[in-house]
Amino acid sequence: MFRRVFLIVLDSLGIGELPDADEFGDVGSNTLRTLTTSKGLFVPTLMKMGLFNIEKAGLSQFAFKGVPIANFGAMAEKSKGKDTTIGHWEIAGIISSNPLPTYPNGFPDEVIEEFNAKTGKEILCNKPYSGTEVIKDFGDEHVRTGKLIVYTSADSVFQIAAHEKIVPLDELYHYCKIAREILKGKNAVGRVIARPFSDKDGVFYRTSGRHDYSLEPYGETMLDIIKASGKDVISVGKINDIFASRGITESNPTANNTEGEELIMKMTERDFNGLCFINLVDFDMVYGHRNDIDGYAAALTRFDKMLTLFLDKLKDDDILMLTADHGCDPGFPGTDHTREYVPLLVYGKKLKSGVNLGTRSSFSDIAATLTDAVGVALIKTGESFLPYII
After folding, report:
1. Contact partners, residue 383, CB within 8 Å, separation at least 6
2. Do 248 and 240 meet the contact criterion of CB atoms below 8 Å apart?
3. DSSP reduced 3-state for 152
4. Of 218, 240, 302, 324, which sits most exposed with the smallest number of CB within 10 A?
5. What is the H or E stretch that residue 125 is in?
6. Which pairs count as long-range contacts for 378-387, CB under 8 Å and 24+ apart, including other chains?
7. 191-200 and 157-163 strand pairing
């Protein structure tokens, strides 16, 4: 049995199209392959762990030539979707047979009318939109009229943007809670997201007060099981939001990857017993969605530097798992998530190294393995790969 497991989600680091990518318009996507086109990508530790040895990535020219220090493989998403909520839920053990609702033509009149009535606020936009573009196009009118900017994306999200001087954060969060109560049943979106922004020298920019109001998981997750056993479930980043605070014993929200990486290092000094579940959101939010290949590559390079230090801090009875929740290929047409395989890297001083775990049929193999590793009731939706690496 292992005492501490660190599970780090490199948000959106896909490694190549899934077989059903054509159903999502994502044929040809490969987030990691796109990053290798950037001169700024330098990830020697991830390389040594076996990231480029994963066959599904199709990047064998960058493969580590010796025996990788971690165990490596790819994971296919069994759930129908390519969004943050569905991806994280599957990692935690829930297979979603039906996709969460999306709104390519905006939200229906009945949703908007109820939102208007309950908030007393009119809205702008109500279309799928880039988060940075929507404040450029509607920010001035919002400031002038006080109307809320409501928009969505290809994902199952209801997003509300507002200038912090026009709508204070507490008020914006209140409107999001109202929207969360409205969006049930057939309109049960995965997340309602507060998107505050401000301005400088006439240019609008998003601020760090983002907050997600997620749909509560509709099945038992590894977080629930680990917490119920009396062990720790510590979240870093937006994990607490994604799981609607369920199964979490301690939440540590972050504004960006820098804060997340600093917390990861601090967690190595903590004597917890259970799971530390981490999401690093900038890969997706700041770089993937904005088609910023060099920015994404630089962020992964910074993470790799932190990872080198992190591995040295791990104790004998620790495990590190690295994965992603979907793709967001910054070189692919559009700005949406991409339906891709995700990487699986598993490292521990008591574990074997260099084991090719192949292509796992579900993200939930992580949940099965993790519950196996910490000695609690196993998640049944996945297959534990622990026997192959101990």
Report:
1. 360, 361, 362, 365, 368
2. yes
3. strand
4. 218
5. strand 123-128
6. 379/92, 379/93, 379/220, 379/221, 379/222, 379/225, 381/93, 381/94, 381/95, 382/93, 385/71, 385/73, 385/346, 385/357, 385/360
7. parallel
For 292, what's the count of Cα atoms within 13 Å in the CB-facing half-sphere?
13
Instruction: Tell which phi-psi region holds residue 158, choosing left (phi > 0), alpha (psi between -120 and 50) or beta.
Output: beta
Structure tokens at 186: 């057939």
Closest to 104 measured CA to CA, from 85, 129, 124, 135: 129
What are the pLDDT digits (tens) for 349-361? 999 999 999 999 9
Contacts of residue 387, Cβ cutoff 8 Å, sequence gap at least 6: none
The C-alpha atoms of residue 78 and residue 18 are separated, in whole angstroms, by: 10
For residue range 285-300, list pLDDT tens digits in order: 999 999 999 999 999 9
Does pTM surpass 0.90?
A: yes
The Cα-based distances of 33 to 38, 84, 113, 304, 332 in angstroms read 10, 21, 44, 17, 11
- Please tell me the distance from the alpha carbon of residue 314 to that of residue 311, in angstroms, as a whole number: 5
* Residues comprising the chain, all counted: 390
C-beta neighbour count of 76 within 10 angstroms: 17
Question: Terminal CA-to-CA distance of the chain, rounded, Å?
Answer: 11
